[in-house]
């Protein structure tokens, strides 16, 4: 689903949203209440420019509209793989975006991520995975790394990783696997406006991803390890 169709489905219109290149932002209303939308489209690679633009939109909302909910619309192929962005410090720009989202959460803004198309790698980690909750549409594509790339990094054979991915969601792409791991809270279907309304109403104020992963059987040890670390003297 393209962003205009999604906006019309969720808000009745795409008015209030502006598109500059691949950067999407603006103010919409849900049930008469204002909502800030920040996101990307066109499978955007997140470079320094895009990361800083998103961070600025989040920080402006914190400064001008205390407590207003923020919806992150996610469609990204991951971080921009370009020498210029590396030299400009893409790692710091993306960290700045993540910290801006975290600050919004700490200041009382409900921050919701929605993967409506594609979510890959660092572009997803520093947006939807830092929100209070991240949901997805059924047709969305989510992964951090393809198995061939994972093989090059881990030095493990592709056949082994492919076999592992059949039984362990950690090694496998796909919306269902991210739901099992707790990275995606739920998949929207049917009335998308009602799904958004519910998602904002019950957005958690504490990070439940590890607990959800344990309960769903897709990430079995993270919550226990975290609890043991916190209990350690």
From TrEMBL:
InterPro entries, per the entry: ClpP/crotonase-like_dom_sf
Highest taxon, organism lineage: Bacteria
Official protein name in the record: Biotin-independent malonate decarboxylase subunit gamma
Species this chain originates from: Roseateles chitinivorans
